[in-house]
Specification:
The first copy, chain A, is built from five helices and eight strands; from the N terminus they run αβββαβαββαββα. By secondary structure, chain A is α+β, with helices and mostly antiparallel strands.
């Protein structure tokens, strides 16, 4: 495996093991990618358990989602990764997780407002806890192309540090796999807080 | 240990370690099996902790539950495994788990309806999240033969991707140990969601 | 370390690692022992973290709690272990855990009734899930001798498979460390169920 | 790495791994330090994940927070560590964690009262469970100097075994890293109990 690929692969393998330990990538849920260049990415292949990835679990695809090796099948949500890389060239990695907290909140709300958390500072463009962000929730859709355009249209209107798909999970990103992973950790932490707050507020 | 046996044994040992880490096989709870042929299966022996299995924890039995080595004692729920293999010859593995979520839901409801979860796609014959499945709950019974016939009678009437026994746990299956394990992960995830939803809906 | 001691020590070290992973022995909470003979036991020394035990963490004491090596200090709850060994000579190990669930239930109730759980079969003298047991809760007391006599007086009147100390934790036992550990796992599982049931029943 | 430094570094690395496994140091949350002398400390550098520390993750600073190696950047909350070391010369380690329970309680209350827990005995100056302590909650502030003085002013008036910052986390300490870590474990355990009690009391 080339050096270009082995570093992001190694970081995504480690992220998958952590997310699996947390219960955020059940079964074959979730998928991960890292940008290799202006028009290529490394992305998890279809059907792998994200807690048990190895080097052969990844494939190289262009930003239309076409694998370089046509005999391989990319994760069926590849186009959602492409959308982020194409929308923002500073994005170096996109990670999708599937936790109990993000599933329940995304089934209940059309948008999640996060305010007053120190961990907000992990999100892009936020320098203080004394801020609020809205994480939009998109309706789930098996037509990924259509879902990707809906996300894209919304991103053009409103800046977002991440988004949720109802009953399906979180998409978050960063300039590196490490930064994207830290944002996933911060967001999942705040989602768990929001869910338990809800259990208390009733 | 023959190659025929070592592969499914290895996969069940790994599944047991994962389920133990999750708290889904407390004490000696749970049991696992894999089909070896049209009329033989490999199944966990009685009394083992499912998080601490090794090759000697399994025995070969026929689909009436009789061990090939009559000196060994199969898990006392062996007949529930036999029922599934005999009912559907495409089933290659049956896994039984015992989680807090499946215990509480199975004590409370006569059937669990799962709808709107992306993970439903892991279950047999479901291609979209926009579906609903019913997981039946059977009353617990120390007479396993009688319980197995009740399950069998119900399966003849209604297709089910898995079932619960009240206060006792989940039975799920697949064509391989890996697929059965992924379905257990998906179902336990949705059960945990349902239980927390319940805590929120009150 | 003699063979007589190394086997139970090894089993208690492993039990401690599991209980720590579960969060059942926070800080220096919990303590473990195993009977060596009719009048001697191996017990955890004072002040050790139960998830980080090694061979030097144990000492030999008589059933009055006096260490053979008078320079060592036994766990300050040693007399509670002595009480169980003296009350029932079939007991080979006593394990004390300190979980969130057993702490909250023991602060709230004077006795915990467990019924309809398959895991009840792990407890002494129960052959079916269709049974109920009462786990008594004793008021906490820094005078361990007085607490031990209160437990002893109650045991003479009522059989119990285990007991709780309010805000302090669970004492459970078995003929071996393995059996005692399985009973702890079963009881902690049922306590967690009871606590979440409570959250749902409100 | 000198022996003076390698021991506390090793203990903080292990504490970080435990806290990460518990979910108490999400993303780059938390920070740890150990006193090296009357006027020097070893503290985690800025930006590290506290579950993935190695020897290079620490730097030596004086008790004004100035790194000996001016090319390095200390954790931005360094002054909160300095405040504790300067206030109490018996303190040998300060650990800051960021759990769901301490975040939710610190957002909700101005002070957390802990009473009737056996684990209270882990806290300084408490010899029995039959006691109560108040853990003060300070409003979060990105001006760490100002926050540190507010903490210092309060400490002069009221003894406290630890404190919380709203939406941000716990600061606890002890004479050694081990003792500070045990107090964190005990406090996080009691916070989780308080949070679940709250869910039950509603």
């Amino acid at each position: 495996m080339s050096l270009e690929i082995s570093r992001p692969a190694r970081d995504m393998i480690a992220a998958g093991q952590l997310f699996h330990q947390r219960g955020w990538v059940p079964a074959t849920g979730g998928n991960f990618s890292a940008r290799l260049s202006s028009d290529r990415m490394l992305i998890t292949a279809s059907g792998w358990h994200k807690g048990e990835l190895d080097d052969s679990a990844f494939l190289v695809a262009d930003l239309d989602g076409a694998p370089e090796d046509r005999s391989r099948k990319a994760s069926y949500e590849t186009l959602l990764h492409c959308q982020v890389y194409r929308f923002d060239e500073s994005v170096g990695s996109v990670l999708h997780t599937h936790s109990v907290a993000n599933t329940l909140l995304s089934r209940r709300y059309e948008s999640i407002r996060l305010a007053g958390y120190e961990l907000l500072k992990l999100l892009p463009g936020i320098a203080t806890h004394d801020a609020a962000v809205e994480i939009p929730v998109f309706e789930n859709d098996q037509d990924i192309q259509r879902l990707a355009s809906r996300v894209n249209d919304h991103m053009k209107k409103v800046a977002m540090p991440a988004y949720l798909i109802a009953g399906h999970g979180l998409y978050a990103w960063g300039s590196t796999v490490a930064q994207a992973r830290h944002r996933v950790e911060a967001l999942e932490f705040m989602f768990e807080c929001e869910l338990r707050e809800l259990e208390n507020k009733r």
